[in-house]
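Subject: for your reference before the review

Hello V.,

The reviewers asked for a structural picture of the protein, and I figured it would be easier to keep everything in one thread rather than splitting it across files. Below is the amino acid sequence we used in the manuscript, unchanged from the supplementary table.
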Amino acid sequence: MGVISVPRLLVSMAVPLMLSMLVQACYNIVDSAYVSRFSEGALSAQDALTAVSAAFPVQSIMIAVSTGTGVGMNAMLSRALGAKRFDEASRAANNGAFLGICSALVFVVLGFFIARPFYYSQYPLSPAIVDSGVEYLTIVTSFSLGLFMQVTFERIMQGTGMTMQTMLTQMAGAVTNIILDPFFIFGIGPFPRMGVAGAAVATVIGQHVAGVLGIVLNHRYNKEVRVSAREVFHPSGRVIRRIYSVGIPSMVMASIGSVMYYGMNRILASFDYAASAVFGVYFKLQSFFFMPIFGMNNAIVPIMAYNYGARKRSRMLQCLKTGLLLAVTIMGLGTLVFESVPGVLLGLFNADEVMLRIGVRALRVIGIHFPVAAVCIVLGSTFQALGKATYSAVVSIARQLVVLLPAAWILSRLGGLEAIWWAFPMAELMSLLMTTIFFRRIYRNIISRVEDRI
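And here is what came back from the structure prediction:
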């Protein structure tokens, strides 16, 4: 951390994380791409895509709860390992697994009661879309245990440095989902033709494969943290409170995107169902470029934090510059793709004439802000590395809830559907302004005062 060439260190740490994130993005895209080619009876291909896309806010909240719990568990686990208190680290892991099981049970209940009201609350959908969407969401929530176990054991392995095993579990789940999607959606061979529900079945099977593999790898290779069924079902109120004291703020932060997505869907649906489908497609496509940046961000944070502790300012700044260069390059490529071949991208999702008319302009307008977002994400890693995560929370809330949604609503009234997409570049410029102000403050008060030991 403090000796190896910074570019080489960053690349060696970031590449596995970026690859695993890229695989996650790919299976999200493939999932929707297959669904967009299914139609049956009153359900058109676009309706099927809309049904799956509309479930995203609930799925995002499930991920937020699982990752937030994992963050809280890892914070306690890492501190205990650093102090060589291995029993305490194991208690954190066992209580984290218990909370994952409880969270899954909560979503099982919620899935049965909120799925249909949730779909009706977004916009006046056709009965075919609602029925397919409710079936999809009910399956995803009812079998969410795989998701919670996958995230829990990935975080345990990450906390003990088992990054390769973590990547294996993520890739195993994603590849399983990608392979099974066409079989369950279209009914290939002995598999039933399940349509939209088949995409949900493939998803939860992939999650369970990843969860089981995570349990097996942790049990076999993790010598520092032990998880057992007996300890999992003997939870500690004190440990749970400590996990949630850190985890709940992370859950809230991760849930902001769900609120934004839900609000945008309501705005877009007042114009055309196709606009909502385009928005869902955009979210899938942008993840192909954003997810690797988030993976690299997870490598930048520990490098920055370590060299701050070691009082090596030059290495901190070199890490930041290298990260900015890589992030802007990747996101610049994303802008180039969105600007040059938006029709080809939409064609991956079997876009009809209406979707193409709406989507080509939408992707070209939204794609403008990608390099700006790259700068904000990498500079934001400094906030996390130096213990100023509150700055990231403020920027995220301001961007998505204070600027993006109100701007989209106002533009929809002033310029109609085509104007809404400009809310994204507007919100990102505001994010850049706030991020720059916070970074200048951190540089002046913290980074510039590091004496830079050789």
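For the response letter, the relevant points are probably these. Residues 36-254 form one domain. The CA atoms of residues 87 and 358 lie 57 Å apart.

Happy to draft the paragraph if you're swamped.

O.
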